[in-house]
Every structure is written in C-alpha cells, then in structure tokens.
Amino acid sequence: MGMAIGLAEAPGHSRTSGPELVGMFVDGKARRCGVGLALVESVVAWARARRAACLALWVTPSNDAAITLYRRCGFQPTGAMRSVAGEDGIEMVRDLND
C-alpha cells in the first residue's frame, strides 16, 4: 500500500540537523484513504521518540497532492531548494515540539 523512510540524520543538504522523511510512496489505489497520513505520523512518532525538535522532507513543487498532505500534517516550506528527482525540490519542516 505504501512506504515511508525516516533517516536519523539529514544527509548534509538540509537546513535542519536531525531526522528526515524520505522515500514516501502510496500506491494509487490506496490514496485518499488515510494511508499517507498514517505513514507520515508513524515517521513523526519515530522522530519524536528520538527526541528530535523537527522533521524535514524534500518534495518536488509539481507534486501538489504530496504538498497538500504534508501541509495537512503540519509541515511548512523553509524556502530552501535543491534538485529532487531531476526537478527543483522544496524543503518542508515540521516542528515536533507541539
């Protein structure tokens, strides 16, 4: 149905130091059923258990569905950009001290 990976340390290109959500994928048949939300919240719980102050991710600006999901999950753009899958990518971060 889906998968998401949490890296313990962002690999040097993030403006944040700490965990990063990467490799997020939800099968098309399982979208809009809460799978994405559950995956994100699982990685958030993992990051909180590590006592992280925030969780970062990168997303391509053309992926409106993912950006909508991440915003709904409390992520906000930082303004940082880099190449993601051959496209410009934007960094989003969620404060975990809420």
Protein architecture, described:
This protein is an alpha+beta fold. The chain contains two helices and five strands, in the order E-E-H-E-H-E-E. It has helices at residues 35-49, 64-72, and strands at 2-7, 20-26, 54-59, 76-84, 87-95. The termini are far apart. The model has no long low-confidence stretch (mean pLDDT 85).
Describe this protein with a few key phrases.
alpha+beta, 5 strands, globular, 24% helix, 2 helices
Discrete helix count: 2
Counting DSSP E segments of at least 2 residues, the number of strands comes to 5
For the largest beta sheet, what order do the strands appear in spatially? 1-2-3-5-4
The percentage helix is: 10-25%
For the biggest sheet, the summary is: 5 strands, mixed
Distance between the termini: 29 Å
Low-pLDDT ranges: none
Tell me, briefly, the overall form.
globular
Structural class: alpha+beta
Query: Order of SSEs, N→C?
Result: EEHEHEE
Question: What would you report as the Rg, rounded to the nearest angstrom?
Answer: 13 Å
Task: Please indicate the percent range of residues in DSSP E strands (runs of 2 or more).
Answer: 35-45%
Mean of residue pLDDT? 85
Outline:
With about 100 residues, this protein is an alpha+beta fold.
Helix-strand blueprint:
Elements: E1 2-7, E2 20-26, H1 35-49, E3 54-59, H2 64-72, E4 76-84, E5 87-95
Parallel strand pairs: 2-3
Antiparallel strand pairs: 1-2, 3-5, 4-5
